[in-house]
TrEMBL record:
<feature type="domain" description="Peptidase M16 N-terminal">
    <location>
        <begin position="30"/>
        <end position="172"/>
    </location>
</feature>
<dbReference type="GO" id="GO:0004222">
    <property type="term" value="F:metalloendopeptidase activity"/>
</dbReference>
<feature type="domain" description="Peptidase M16 C-terminal">
    <location>
        <begin position="199"/>
        <end position="314"/>
    </location>
</feature>
<dbReference type="GO" id="GO:0051603">
    <property type="term" value="P:proteolysis involved in protein catabolic process"/>
</dbReference>
<keyword id="KW-0482">Metalloprotease</keyword>
<keyword id="KW-0645">Protease</keyword>
<dbReference type="GO" id="GO:0005739">
    <property type="term" value="C:mitochondrion"/>
</dbReference>
<dbReference type="GO" id="GO:0005829">
    <property type="term" value="C:cytosol"/>
</dbReference>
<dbReference type="GO" id="GO:0046872">
    <property type="term" value="F:metal ion binding"/>
</dbReference>
<comment type="similarity">
    <text>Belongs to the peptidase M16 family.</text>
</comment>
<dbReference type="InterPro" id="IPR007863">
    <property type="entry name" value="Peptidase_M16_C"/>
</dbReference>
<keyword id="KW-0862">Zinc</keyword>
<dbReference type="InterPro" id="IPR011249">
    <property type="entry name" value="Metalloenz_LuxS/M16"/>
</dbReference>
<dbReference type="GO" id="GO:0043171">
    <property type="term" value="P:peptide catabolic process"/>
</dbReference>
<dbReference type="Pfam" id="PF00675">
    <property type="entry name" value="Peptidase_M16"/>
</dbReference>
<keyword id="KW-0479">Metal-binding</keyword>
<dbReference type="InterPro" id="IPR050626">
    <property type="entry name" value="Peptidase_M16"/>
</dbReference>
Length: 326
């Protein structure tokens, strides 16, 4: 049974129905019922409150490995105890008109999919098992380290990725923002093995310690009624373990005074000129209703004659990118 339930206030023009519930394992869920949705629009998204900032020292990229665009991410999508056939989840989704993906951010990892509505309940069951009893076999671990390494090698040819890593490099070494967050063969295989560390064992340990129901948020969107969706969610996600983990916090600043007001010049892979301006601001989540970054982005990025963008482009043929780092 859910331990709490709230109806959501919505605009009059919105015909969908919403309900927020909290399961007895402390998993927070938002249910969205849309009877008018087309047949291929049922979807779900699970957000886990742990990301690359929580990578263990010496195992950079572990959180990314656990997810689907990351290591743990990659590993969860492989197989579970209930569905042991490798990659059966992804195949099931694609064979039934859907898509699936995941990403690892600094403080969260997100898994999501959409699928034909008539296959949604089974897809949701397969999805839930990743957070209940994933297998994470030894063979899959080695293969996925190689996949992560290939992803990293491809990123080396991306100017956007290279500039992002450069920005991390010039940040405060004592802050987790400074870490190499993607992972590759060196950080996930060579260095751990040289120290006698088993990456798979560390992966399982990371999962058990951090993937707790009370740090997860689930959104389910389908054509069924709210009562129907609630029953399905309670049945399939109630078994996710709750280890009562505290939310992660990372005090300090990624950029101190000595890291500011500096000019860094870099040679890009592709020909062109870019001017990137970065500065620290108050974390945007504290002001999400006002959206101050939208104002800054609009004012600085506006291309009309007389704007900052227009002046810089006229003088130096630059493309301006505004990066607001919290």
């Amino acid at each position: 049974m859910a331990v709490s339930r709230d109806e959501i206030v919505k605009p009059r023009t919105d015909k969908r129905e919403y309900r927020r519930i909290v399961l007895s394992n402390s998993l927070q869920v938002l249910l969205i019922s849309d009877p008018e949705t087309d047949k291929a629009s049922s979807a779900a998204s699970m957000d886990v409150g742990v990301g690359s900032f929580s990578d263990p020292v010496g195992l950079e990229g572990l959180a990314h490995f656990l997810g689907a665009v990351s290591f743990l991410q990659h590993m969860l999508f492989y197989a579970s105890e209930k569905y042991p056939l490798e990659d059966s989840y992804s195949k099931y989704i694609s064979e039934h008109g859907g898509h699936t993906n995941a990403f690892t951010d600094s403080e969260q990892t997100n898994y999501h999919f959409d699928v034909n509505s008539d296959c949604f309940e089974e897809a949701l069951d397969r999805f839930a098992q990743f957070f209940i009893k994933p297998l994470m076999s030894a063979d899959a671990t080695t293969r996925e380290i190689k996949a992560v390494d290939s992803e990293c090698q491809m990123n080396l040819l991306s100017d956007a990725w290279r500039m992002s890593q450069l920005q991390k490099h010039v940040s405060n070494e004592g802050h987790p923002y400074h870490k190499f967050n993607i992972g590759n063969w060196e950080t996930l295989e060579v260095r751990p093995k040289a120290k006698g560390v088993d990456t798979r064992e560390e992966l399982i340990k990371f999962y058990k310690e951090h993937y707790s129901a009370n740090l997860m948020h689930l959104i389910v969107y389908a054509k069924e009624s709210l009562d129907k969706l609630q029953g399905v969610v309670e049945e399939k996600f109630q078994a996710i373990p709750n280890h009562e983990r505290s939310c992660f916090s990372f005090p300090g600043q990624p950029f101190l005074s000595e890291h500011l007001q500096i000019l860094v010049k870099a040679v890009p892979i592709q020909e062109g000129h870019e001017l990137r301006i970065s500065w620290p601001i108050t974390p945007w989540i504290l002001h999400y209703k006002e959206g101050p970054m939208r104002y800054l982005s609009h004012l600085i990025g506006h291309e009309a004659e007389g704007s900052v963008f227009y002046a810089l482009k006229t003088l130096g043929e630059y493309i301006i990118y505004v990066i607001c780092a919290s």
